[in-house]
Amino acid sequence: MSPTATETMHFGKNYHGFEPFKLTSPFGSWKELREQAPVMWDDRINMFVVTRYEDVKGVFEDWETFSSKDAQQPIRPLCAEAKKIMADGGFTTYSGLSARIPPEHTRIRAVATKAFTPRRYKVLEPYIRENADKLIDAMIAKGTNSGDILTDLAYDLPTITIFTLIGVPHDMIDQVKEWATSRAVITWADLTDEEQLPHAHNMVAYWNFCQSIVTNAKANPGDNLVTDLVNLQAAGEEITDHEIASFLYSLLFAGHETTTTLISNATRQLLINRDSWEAIKADQTKIPGAIEEVLRSAGSIIAWRRTAERDAVVGGVDIPKDSQVLVVMGAANYDPEMFPNPDKFDIERENARQHLSFGYGIHYCIGNMLGKLQTRVALEELTAKLPDLHIVDGDSIEFGDNLSFRVPLTVPVTW
After folding, report:
1. In degrees rounded to 5, what are phi and psi of residue 50?
2. Which of 102, 140, 194, 276 is 20 to 30 A off residue 318, Cα-Cα?
3. Structure pTM?
4. Average pLDDT for residues 336-355, to the nearest whole number?
5. Which residues contact 304 (CB under 8 A, 6 or more apart)?
């Protein structure tokens, strides 16, 4: 958007308390935005900020007008040195699916869906439960009657799962987590030029690793998702090695980071709302509904980006072509027009599944079932093994600075 166009916007400088990168307690500002400026131009991030449910859903649904093509571009453009590091290192990917558009997106997603099947989930469930048991037992074995759900359970569980799904050695957990952190901050955080540099080096290493997984799957096939994709390719499905590696580039990040956050946020929400914890402890069939309510009220991803491909109107506000749009799913999930009494955490909320935390439309999260499965198993095992679990200062937990990913820094518990 040109400076002249920006200057003609009639939004003033009242941001209604909205701080794009501060996610510890954004709910008051989201409420004020929905009520007073549901489509607000924010010159600090050069984006239109959209917060009402129907508007956010509408932007997701109209992918031809609001493209995902820039969804993975760094919020703060890379400095020249970071660009050089990545170019010299052969970094050539940008997205698995979320930033691709049809027909490319349609073609790659169709192939990925054939490999990413419910059969794979069912095969993994006993393994997920075994690992959850081991991690909880190890936390108990420390003998302190205290722990941190984030680091003791949620950190490793989904990472082990996704590594098994893909065929990655488990001894690489810490390394891949480091790469994943670099991807999150270099893309969605507000870094200085100097702060970008180590993360640029990590991105090169991460991308080279993803390519090596594909090469290895061809040389040494196994019972895993990557071999399935390679076999589909060999059978004539239209997907390249680069596209498979790009899919892994996204899956190795989103496949565990968002579930780490979901398990952490679920435990926190349920323990803060003690009646809900007691309810799922007494009746574990209520856990799936509880997870949907956690996704509504404390989703792992609370905002995503789109680019206007043509002049458009959202919520009565003109959106010029080429404008960046930030759809705040977290705010939309608290819209009282969609979710009555939205501030109440209600694990029996009938329409909780209509949350937008997994997006909407053609880019709806392909791995949502696996994330929910792992969170269900984690909660089943926690309530069975530690029924008297309590959170420590749950309302004081802080969340990391980020535009899109709302991640708690700790989830301390006692029993």
Report:
1. -110, 130
2. 102
3. 0.92
4. 98
5. 71, 326, 327, 329, 359, 404
